[in-house]
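TL;DR need structure tokens for one chain.
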Amino acid sequence: MRWKSYGERPVHRTPWVDLWVADVEQPDGARRDYYVVKLRNLAAAAVVNERREVLMMWRHRFVTDSWAWELPMGLVEDGETPAETAARETLEETGWRPGSLRPLIYAEPANGITDSQHHLFRADGATYVGPPTEQNESDRIGWIPLADIRGMIDRREIVSSGSLVGLLYLLMDEGLR
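>> reply
TL;DR here they are.
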């Protein structure tokens, strides 16, 4: 049941998000406009230390007016690889320089409405460089025991899909060791 696209055009464009309309034919033959949100790709890092703790940030998201723990993450800039983004964002947002990054998991959240790709990486260890240079990202930074993650998810202390996907996969990866 493949959808067929006859083209698309931008409706509204900003540096952060673009709204496009696509002319599509659905599998049942109906043809209609379908709105697509185009976002820059995102990269995140799950940095784990020798005590089996993961580096996270407690932050406010004004869109949902909620507080929760998140992995360091950010948008991939032009000319930057997702791994470079994950390392840069971790340092800027936490003050910790992650060790060697390796791919953890790839995800396409809400791929029925957006084209955003999420690249999540794992680093074993980090070096503290100094206070975060990005002052608008978090209220506090902490090393959270992996053993506490499941309960935090259940209590909705971790709700960001990028963080959830990365942490759940990390927990699966740790469980297999």
